[in-house]
Amino acid sequence: MWKRYRFKTKSIKDYRPIIFNPKFPWWCSGESDINVTIVAYLPDSEGLKKYWDDAFDISFTECEEIKFCGRFTKPDYFVPS
Length: 81
Fold this sequence. Notes:
- By secondary structure, the chain is mainly β.
- The chain has one domain (2-63).
- The chain is built from one helix and four strands, in the order βββαβ.
């Protein structure tokens, strides 16, 4: 089971996850002068704050699989488990 998170971070210059795992895709979905919006898939067993410790305004949906689309394309680094 996966969680598809949507959240904001104040790390506007470097908003990459603290811990990089090529099995967990993520994208920058929007930027402003004060925050960045991120969309990320994480397994149910992984906590979001482990990867983005300054995440706020967090929402998520549970899903069976990772789905890519025109806006959220499969990242080059992604290696499915």
